[in-house]
Amino acid sequence: MDGGEGDDRLFGDDGHDVLNGGAGNDRLFGGAGQDHLRGEAGDDFLDGGEGFDLLHGGAGNDTLRGGAGDDVLIGGAGNDVLIGGAGRDSFVWGIEDLRYTSGTRDVVKDFVLGEDKLQFVAMEGPGFATSAPATPMEEALSFALTKEGDDTVLRVSSFRGTNEIVFENTDLLLGGNLSEAEALQRLLA
Fold first, then answer.
1. pTM score, two decimals?
2. Average pLDDT, whole number, for the chain?
3. What's the CA gap between 100 and 44, in Å, rounded?
C-alpha cells in the first residue's frame, strides 16, 4: 500500500504487509505478521506490531516502534527515535545516516546488550538494507563511547562529520566493568 504525497495513516492486517508512506508526515501500522514499513520523506511514526518486521524511517525525524518479534529498525537520515520492543532486535545505520550534515542524534530507547544488535551496513538506493557485510563500513568509521547520566552515547565519526546514537537508560560500560574497547567490541559484534 502506497500513501503517496500528504500526511497518511496506513494500516496493515494480520498478513505480510508492505506499507510505504511516501512524502509527508505519515503514521504506518503493520499489525500482526511479517511487515515492511517505509516512511520515506517527512517526520513519520512506524509501528510494526506483532511479528518479525522491517521498519525504515527514511529522511526526516522519525519514530520507529518494532513491537513484539525480532525486528529490524533503520532510522535513516534525521534525528530518529528507535524502540525495538520485545524480541531480539537489530538497530541498523547505513551510509544515508552519515552522508548528510554532521550532528544528527538518534535515540535507542530499549537496547539490551547481548540480545539486540547494532549494525552498520551499506545501503542501496530506495530499497532496504542489502546483504553486504558490515566490516567495510565499520572500517571507514571511528567510534567513541561516553556516559551521560543514565545514558550511553556512541559517537560515530566519518570523513563527513560526527553523529551520535544515544542508548537511553542503558549502561553499555556495565558500571565501569567494561573498558570502552570491550564495550565497543560487544556492541559491534
1. 0.89
2. 87
3. 19
